[in-house]
Write a structure and sequence with these properties.
two-stranded antiparallel sheet; 11 helices
Amino acid sequence: MSIKIGIMQGRLSNSINNTIQAFPEKSWSKEFEIGQRINLNSIEWIFDIYEKNPIMNNQITEINNCISKFQIKVNSVCADYFMINKLFNESEQNIKKNLEILKKLAKNSAKIGAKIIEIPLVDSSSLKTEKDKKELVTNLKKIIPEIKNLGIMITLETDLEPKEFLNLLEMFDKNTVYANYDTGNSASLGYDVNEEFKILKDKIKNIHLKDRIRNGTTVPFGLGDTNFEEFFKILKKSEYSGDLIMQGARIEGINPEQNCLKYQNFVKEYLDKYS
């Protein structure tokens, strides 16, 4: 398998205001140095704030300098911003504004070599109704051709059941919108990884590695209900060739770098087992 291990931005820094995930405003560049030291392949950029995020405020050169200096790629961008500033169920004015921001994010993501922008549709941005789905599809379709021309792929992360998720993806034009798969969210929802991969197949273009308790929170790898054994067994049989982005819980008493190394070794054992 030509699969590489990466990490979610912020996981190589101390927690910000006790949050599990946030853009590390003061240490984002340092994370590239740490990533190189522990032999990571990539960092998934987080876009959750607008004004202070370098990807949106003319610091593209600085980002590319880090990518080049430390040989750590940014293949994907996690656009948590759109969990609050949604692309559906908003006023026409807000939708227009948010679509413009997504277009700008796509343009700047392409400038740093990213190929994927992931839009989370979970928790506060979950698709609750058919109306929500139709609005999302209608609004994204307005800008997808422009984004696709930049070489950027949109992936969606949802809490929908596999067949329902596939139906959503098929509402878009062919080969335009894909799936982001999250092992922990799947386990929390009680979904079966065999069924998910059977149904979504080649729609899965990015994967987040996480462990969660059924109907509960994120926990350290191996302590929740994620069936990693089955996941990696299926992954080997699949044609997936993207990144595995570690998005694990922070382990109390361990610094972020040690935490990442612990998770990295956990993942490598499975990749070696099913190589």
